[in-house]
Amino acid sequence: MTRVQANLLLLLAAAIWGGGFVAQSTAMKAIGPFWFIGLRFAVATLAVLPFVLFEARKAKEKTSARHAKLYILIGLALFGGAATQQVGLQTTTVTNSSFITGLYVVFVPLIAVFFLRRAPHWIIWPGALMAVTGIYLLSGGHLSALTPGDLLTVVCAVFWAIQITLAGTTVSETGRPLALSAVQFAVTAVCALAVAAAVEPVSLSAIRAAAPEILYVGIFSSGVAFVLQVIGQRYTTPSQAAIFLSSEALFGASLAALLLGETMPVTGYAGCALMFIAMLVVELVPGLTRRRLPAA
């Protein structure tokens, strides 16, 4: 596969994820957030299983008990991110959610600083400042204007950052990204369905009404897009992958405007742009500066 083909795969994955924000929002008209999460990730688990079996045949080592525990922990972090994002969509817009969720790009290195004691690249601090300023502008210059959904989505981005950090270190040990995906999807499904059964009403008619969104997000956003990401990142550079994958926020905002008629004031768009720039510089600048260093 050429680099251009790989980048196009990543762009397709970002477009699918962007559409997922719209599907997650419209599903709330028919079904509760935890039923949606549980059914979504149950479908995702089934969708990724064939790839897991294929991966297992080529695996060089079996999954240890320690790795299984890490998979479950990662699944709990994924559940936290999915739950706060989905509940947040009840009181925020798809545009806000898609951009605020993308702040995990900024939070990942910050977690490395405070919990893994890794010295950060200098760009992290201006990047974090730009991200916070972007949220401020997104609120229209009044933090009191931020909805509970916006704040929940910030928490969601922290959970995604934890999930990405743990998943990155675990996959580097196991070399089994698809096995990890199946377990974390299954853990999230079980947790969400348990909460849903306890606190949310449900009916077959509600599930049927939300079925298109459940299937889209379960099969495409979780199953297909994840596989496209894994394949594409094998044939392109991390910097280029970051550019194409971070376009998820732009697809989410564009589809929300096209399909849901969402609009925002000029300051809101300025905030989205600033957050998007923060995501890009945090991903791109460290790699670019390493390339410019003279060889030893």
TrEMBL record:
Residues 7-139, 148-282 form the EamA domain. Keywords: Cell membrane, Membrane, Transmembrane, Transmembrane helix. It is found in: Cell membrane. The chain crosses the membrane at residues 33-56, 68-87, 99-116, 123-145, 151-171, 178-199, 214-231, 243-260, 266-285. GO terms for cellular component: plasma membrane. Its main location: membrane. It comes from the Bacteria. It is a multi-pass membrane protein. Pfam families: EamA. This is DMT family transporter. The lineage of its organism: Bacteria, Pseudomonadati, Pseudomonadota, Alphaproteobacteria, Hyphomicrobiales.
